Amino acid sequence: xxxxxxxxxxxxxxxxxxxxxxxxxxxxxISVVFSSIAGYFLGAYEIQWLQVVLLAFGGYCMxxxxxxxxxxxxxxxxxxxxxxxxxxxxxxxxxxxxxMTMAIVLTLLGVLALYLLNPKTAMFGAISIxxxxxxxxxxxxITPLAVFVGAIPGAIPFMLGWVAATDDFxxxxxxxxxxxxxxxxxxxxxxxxxLDDDYRSGGFKMLxxxxxxxxxVLQIIMYxxxxxxxxxxxxxxxxxxxxxxxxxxxxVFLMGAVMLGFAFKLYSKRDNASARKLMLASVSYIxxxxxxxxxxKFLG
Length: 300
Known about the structure:
Order of helices and strands: HHHHHHHHHHHHH
Number of helices: 13
Largest sheet: none
Shape: globular
Strand content: under 5%
Distance between the termini: 62 Å
Helix content: over 70%
Radius of gyration: 20 Å
């Protein structure tokens, strides 16, 4: 009898944990935390692991809160799309009240953790939540320009890590911000291309022209090139303490060229399979680029 009760409790806890991961978008949140920690390693004179823990915890809370707010706001639209109709709120596994409570608690914990690092970090974290939930989310059904707004909070994490380490905002974190800002466009437009039909079901306008056309792919190519250029600017020694060796710059540029190749393939084929390959290439690029930057700093 006790075994059965224990098993039931374990199953219930597993379901609750699974819903928590889904409403906070755990995989996305972890990738954001990774970016923040990479930025911290780049900015830190000396790594303090308590600061890394606070940054990771606060970063996860802030991203999780943003995603929870987003799912509360878009619950009716989520129910219309295949990829989101099984989320915790549309299915009733989590109530709107519970989701809002979770989002508020995560916001408070996240701001506190980041404030313990320094007030600037907490401020940028709070700005990220505000822009994502109060500007980007409602704009998604109104205009494709929503992606431009969403690229701002999406680009903050890499920069946030540097600010957390230094309590300073200058050209170095500004450069990290610009790298991830330009990266957002090919990444999200590739995703928007893949899921265009589903997004239309929910009334979302994610592609820059509203269509899977030549102009959309040309913008993807253009922003990929800008991303490649900005990513190697530190090699020229004009970005303060943020520096990149020639070898690292070549590696980063070549990785960007691979991503650009997938963008041209999408231009050639105009199919979902090519868009998916570009999206996956973009995920690999942002992760590997950050790893190269960090390794280059500590080997340099």
